Amino acid sequence: MKVSVVIPLYNEEENVMELYGRLKHVLEAMKSGYEIIFVDDGSTDSTFSLVEKIQEKDSRVMAISFRRNFGQTAAFAAGFDYADGDVIVTLDGDLQNDPADIPRLLEAMKDCDIVSGWRKRRKDPFISRRLPSIIANRLISKVTGVELHDYGCSLKAYRRDVVKNLRLYGEMHRFIPAVAKWYGVKITEIETNHYPRLRGKSKYGISRTMKVLLDLITVKFLLSFSTKPLQFFGPVGLLSSLAGFMISLYLSLEKVLLGRAIGGRPLLLLGALLIIVGIQFIGLGLIGEMVVRVYHESQQKPIYVIRKVLGNEDK
Ligand code: UDP
Ligand code: MG
């Protein structure tokens, strides 16, 4: 079994050497083959030249350098594309994760497809980081149905085929377990160490919470309705149209049977509005259905994922 370790680095010149040393120590002690993939996410300090030096001396290291800062998710995605291990482990490049946890992660990997680290004793500021994270984890667990204590922990291990066909966008790397659940993978969680950041600066603040929240909406929508958008927009559209129709009918009867003037009634406006909104929702759903067909048919995207096929060898 080969392990690929993927590490995103953005201005981590003070950490990269020590991280490499510790990682090397842990990986050499294991029986399996390994590679280390450093992804430099457009650092403006000397991070990449340090990585380059490491790579020159160590053939098990791969160094990828981005032209500019594309973000942590993109860095992970590049690492996944280049990794050729059977298991892919990700961790942060700032020494907040502990490379010594990797063997335990791999051990837990034996009977599942994703092992997620859980920073039970997380060493980050409470108000700006831990509190939003607690709320976010509860919310993501509830909405996606994949219960994890710590979606944000970078220290995770994935079976190769889980990440190989994944396309990541935005801040999406934290949602890999939720998305992968759709493929039917098995996920476990183990407690891992966590340390305060001793050197270098954190790249994130409270503003990330908003991005994560919006990504959650995207993920939820895509997971539940990506192959049937009309099922999402349709019911709202139908209900709205129906309500609008009833209101209009009621007003029409009043006008015709009782001869009352209805031109100045606010209800008239509401009825018309509900009908129009309803039709638009249904139209939106139908456009969605067309987009889905274009997407799946032009790109040959399957709507299912196969583990293996038996009895198909000679075809
Ligand atoms: N990182 C990155 N690109 C970015 C921001 C961060 O590759 O645009 C890397 C960073 O170098 C570190 C990891 O992602 O290895 C986590 O970043 P950070 O420690 O700043 O996040 P925090 O631990 O504060 O959530
Ligand atoms: Mg950090």
Structural description of this entry:
It is a single chain. This protein is α/β, with parallel strands linked by helices and 315 residues long. It folds into two domains: 3-225, Spore Coat Polysaccharide Biosynthesis Protein SpsA, Chain A, CATH 3.90.550; 230-296. The protein is 49% helix and 12% strand. It is built from ten helices and seven strands. It has helices at residues 16-28, 47-57, 72-82, 102-108, 126-144, 160-164, 176-183, 208-225, 229-258, 266-298; strands spanning 2-9, 33-40, 61-65, 87-90, 114-118, 156-159, 187-191. It has a seven-stranded mixed sheet, with helices on both faces. Helix 1 links the parallel strand 1 (2-9) and strand 2. The longest helix is centred in the C-terminal third of the chain and has 33 residues, at 266-298. The radius of gyration is 26 Å and the shape is elongated. Magnesium ion binds next to loops.
